[in-house]
Amino acid sequence: MKFSEFATYLEKLEKTSSRNEITQILADLFKKTSQKEIDKVVYLVSGQLAPSYIGIDFNIAEKLMLRIIAKAFGQKLETVADQFKKMGDLGIVAEGYAYGKDGGASVLDVYQTLFEMAGQEGGGSQERKITQTAELLSSLDSLSVRFITRIPTGNLRLGFSDMTILDALSYMETGDKSLRSRIEAAFNVTVDIGKIAKAVKQKGTFVLKDVLPEPGTPIRPSLAERLPSAEKILEKVGSKVIVEPKYDGFRAQVHIYKLKTQNSKLKTEVVIFSRNLENTTNMFPDIVEAVKKIKVGSAIFDGEAIAYDAKSGKFLPFQETAQRKRKYGIPEAIKNLPLKLFIFDILYKDGKNLLPLPFSERRKILESTVFKIDGVEIIRQEVTGDAKVIRDLIQKYLAEGLEGALIKKIDAPYKAGARGYHWVKYKKTTGAGVADTIDCLVMGVNRGKGKRVGFGVGAFLVGVKDGNKFKTTSKIGTGLTDEQWRELDKRSKYLEVSNMPGEYEVDKNLVPDAWTKPSLVVEILADEITVSPIHTAGLALRFPRLINFRNEKNPDQTTTLRELEGLFKMQKI
Ligand code: AMP
């Protein structure tokens, strides 16, 4: 496929916000691509060159792209920069200068050039990036130029998620959604959407039933539901359940496997993925070293890492553990905030897929795999069918300063990518007021008045996810410390956009001073959820307070409207 043809699809996608239409356009595009191209096309429509967990970074800021555009079309940098100031969109600026002729580059050619550019490192790499990309741009038609300039700068946001791509793959095969759940099941086990697309294109969806976990490729994590009481838990989860403490740190999916080195020796490789499936291995060399001591050929573990005070050995609150999520200053951080990894599940061992096994059996395998190692521990657990014992355990964990408990179904398989009653979380807040904190997206900000002029932001609008949309549930003007207001001001400045993002639904009476693009997630605790005629979610939060900035979450992982409705109903039980 020529890139110019691909660009016409991108244009169609850009013009619509209807999920159905987007699915049809994508299905049509995927149908037309060859087996060789489909994985690349899938990455490129999402503005990437590979799944995000591989972490290919273009390192091209908007400023550098302005230089590239200037060079490609023989313009002065100042002129291009002025245009950008006026238009606010690099793609449109570059398109305006484009020569308009199509040199015939294919999708694969463009992919290859972008790939080489992203890999440029070391002395002179910036100049090489400029030359390479400028050459590419000057050889393409204007529409292609519009989209190519947006990709390396992270501006190709066409408003759909991986889930829409999965739908489109089903439509590609059958013209309807009937294969979606089979495709999603495979995606849950191996989160490389390009690889899945290629397998479907090459061999049809029947190959997907054999998709197995693969060390090095993340598995979508299992998620927990909420229930208001120990009695309800026994009713829903099972007459006997497993109770584990809930540590409030980072989710860590730890992959261990052997790689052949150049001289044919085997080397142990460790990769750690966050709950978002970002590759966080480089941040936690202490965990990497510790888990290398586990005597296993290959394995995938699920666990939670939490920081503790090196002197007292006491576990620290999330805000402290969060300091370990950093790119620089790692050796000092290891000393000041050592981490302990609590492993609570094993998903794969030495070539065997353990996902379908009952939890109790996976636990036995876990216990026969991991023995005493500094910095790593199997999470403690108890089996009970008694509501009082559950309550007592929760009280005990809370008294230890932990976040609460997870109650798990004894015979459940590991439900990759699913939230369900196989896991139920019970936190301090459960049973009183709103049962859980709510992860909201910051959608816009208002400037401060009175005392808060100095902080910049004085109120902000937050919302929850409903399908592809974000619907408002609160305008928050209190419940933040001075420091949190300043932090919010700093962060929101980078996110301000002049028009309301297409995925937002906001009542006209709530339009903020400035919109912020979907990026910043905050954890909110509220006293009550009430019905609201003005918030587009239909529900509002009373007495909201900001608990945390949830850096590890992206907008796709905010609380959903369905979950918020669940919390609302729970209040009434
Ligand atoms: P939440 O983020 O509030 O939905 O709670 C679920 C999270 O709790 C998981 O994503 C894990 O990061 C964390 N967690 C802590 N302890 C456990 C445990 N014993 N089992 C499962 N998840 C746990």
UniProtKB/TrEMBL annotation:
Q: Which residues bind ATP?
A: 244, 251, 275, 304, 344, 419, 425
Pfam families listed in its UniProt record: DNA_ligase_A_C, DNA_ligase_A_M, DNA_ligase_A_N
Q: What is its EC number?
A: 6.5.1.1
Q: What does UniProt list as catalytic?
A: 246
The residue ranges of the ATP-dependent DNA ligase family profile domain are 332-466
> What top-level branch of life does the organism fall under?
Bacteria
Key word DNA-binding present: no
**Named cofactor requirement(s):** Mg(2+)
Q: What does this protein do?
A: DNA ligase that seals nicks in double-stranded DNA during DNA replication, DNA recombination and DNA repair.
The family classification in the record reads: Belongs to the ATP-dependent DNA ligase family.
Classification via HAMAP family: DNA_ligase
Please identify the protein, giving its name as recorded.
Probable DNA ligase
Question: Per the UniProt entry, what species is this protein from, by scientific name?
Answer: Candidatus Woesebacteria bacterium RBG_16_42_24
Q: What is the lineage of its organism?
A: Bacteria, Candidatus Woeseibacteriota
**Gene (name only):** lig
